[in-house]
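Changelog-adjacent note: as of this version, every example in the card shows the full chain rather than a window. The one below runs 306 residues end to end.
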Amino acid sequence: MREQFAEILKQTQNNQIAQMDLVIDNETYTRVFRPKERLILLGAGHIAQPLCEIASMLGFAVIVVDDRPLFANHPRFPQAEHIVCDAFPHAIEQLQIHAGDYVAVITRGHRYDTDCLRTLLAGTMPRYLGMLGSKRRTIALLHMLAQEGFAQNKLDSIHTPIGLDIGALSVQEIAVSIAAQLVQTRRRGLNRRSKSHILTEETFRADVVEDIVSNPLKKALLLVYETSGSTPVKSGSFMTVNEMFQAKGTIGGGCSESAVLRDAFHLIGTGESKCVTVDMNNDVAAEQGMVCGGQMKIFLTDLNEV
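Full-length structure tokens:
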């Protein structure tokens, strides 16, 4: 299994979505590992602020671009992973947009929107490209770009006016509509009812995966593969414990975690696997402070060759 994690690490470092299939109780479960996707906000105005905050909560690595120092700064965007204060075309070229990126063109004016789109359309198209503006204005701009020779299929892929139509009026509501469209794009084509049991949590957790691949200490894996009711984490959450009883990652913390951590520790070096159920509805759980009221099924397995 270490070899599988090594391949997952390699793929995610190349900004590719990786996955691992696990057979548990004669059922196949798929754990997707999604690298942190870049959301590039071209424009640091009022909509960009709530959008940066919401997108960061959704797991995007937000990059804010603007040519005005008073707008492109960390006090205005504390959740941004990177801020670029530069002319839009040059910043776009330096960021080297790739096919997995998400880009929102939310500049302060028509001229800057045009500069951004000309630069973006001349390179690799991102997975998502949206532009703020009224239907009338954006139709005219796209028509002009088509006359300039830009490919119609690229122009047709632009989400404009940006965001889902939820009747948004305020700046915050517009940011929510854009964030909803980002999620819609992210989840497109993902069938949650698949018989392969696609697990909910897709966070990559580079620290845990790198430890599995590189740390020579023997260790065991704990993976939540089913949940019901209210639980501290969703299926797909995982962690490890090594032979020194040091843990990385989490499956919820507290009693729900400690209840199975020692079971996993005892599997180290055995080459064995087992499934355990943590029931947060029973009286013992209530006495221990496990107040979520749900149930988690957890797969424990030795990660070492024996």
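Structural remarks: The radius of gyration is 23 Å.
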